[in-house]
Amino acid sequence: MSAASQGLDANALQSSTASAVAATVRGAQVKLESYARTMAETGVKDLFKGILALVSQHDNTPQTMRLRNKFVPLNPAEWKSQFDTVVQVGLGTTDDETKIAFLTQIASKQEQILMQLGPQNPIVTMPQYVNTLRSIVEIGGFKDADQYFNSPQMIAQQQAMQAQQPPQPDPAVAAAQQKAQMDMQIAQQKAEAEIALKRERMQAELQLEREKMQMEMEIRRQELAMEAELRVAKAVTDAEISTNLPRAQ
Q: What are the backbone angles phi and psi of residue 89, rounded to the nearest 5°?
């Protein structure tokens, strides 16, 4: 491990390209990573397995711990004596930036697949996309990724609840149905208005015919009355004439 890779010599990396500097720093980090992994796999893992065995054997008092942002009671006596242990070693800021850049590319590709093929595509699921986003948050140094994205378990529960609910109608179909209903209502109102207008017209025509018949009957009655008066007057006149004529000698 040279002084240049440790950042101790201010003049060692002058007039060097960015790739050469990155390769020098990366070489030192690879060695540090190898040392850290060796110590973690051969020492730290066995140490914590021993601690777990002692806690499970001697501690039988239930305790309340925060698990996934929820406080739950835990009894160490009920734990198993062995668990699968996964060692994760911090590799420095530069390596984290590389991982974040790579995960960002993965997230971009996942977004593209989800937008083109939909959430039910056979390549990427929504929980996988959320895992990528949560990994970016965790690598960035934020321990609680739940502050930014829901967990895949919560997303699965929400999807199950949505699947149990009746499907929401398509907005285009709903708009078409609403327009059809409005058109039917308008057509019904128009038909009712036409029927009412025809009814009023028929009633007006019937009333006009009735008035016309009454007028004709009144005229006929007056004509009959005048004819009767004329006959009476003629009969009176004929009687007077016959009375005033001289009798034959």
A: -110, 130
- Give 113-168 as a DSSP string: HHHHH-TT-SS--HHHHHHHHHHHHHHTT-S-GGGTS--HHHHHHHHHHHHHSPPP
Alpha-carbon distance 132 to 110, whole Å? Answer: 9
| Residues 51, 59: Cα–Cα separation, whole Å | 11
What gap in Å lies between CA 47 and CA 44, rounded to an integer? 5
**Predicted confidence (pLDDT) per residue in 79-109, tens digit:** 766 666 666 655 454 567 788 899 999 999 9
Question: Which of these, 103, 48, 102, 56, lies nearest to 75 by C-alpha position?
Answer: 56
| pLDDT tens column, 159-207 | 788 777 776 677 788 888 888 889 999 999 999 999 999 999 999 999 9
pLDDT in tens, 25-34: 666 666 777 7
pTM greater than 0.70: no
Asked if 96 and 140 count as a contact pair (C-beta separation under 8 A), the reply is yes
CA distance 122 to 11: 54
242: three-class secondary structure by DSSP: helix
Distances (CA, A) of 146 to 130, 134, 143, 162, 177: 11, 8, 9, 21, 42
Residue appearing with tokens 């994205």: 149
Max Cα-Cα span within the chain:
185
What confidence score (pLDDT) does residue 113 get? 92
- The Cα 54–Cα 48 span in angstroms is 10
26, 94 in Cβ contact below 8 A?
A: yes
Instruction: Look up tokens 């009355």; give the residue.
Output: 225
DSSP assignment letter at 10: T
Please report which helix (H) or strand (E) contains residue 71, including its range: strand 70-74
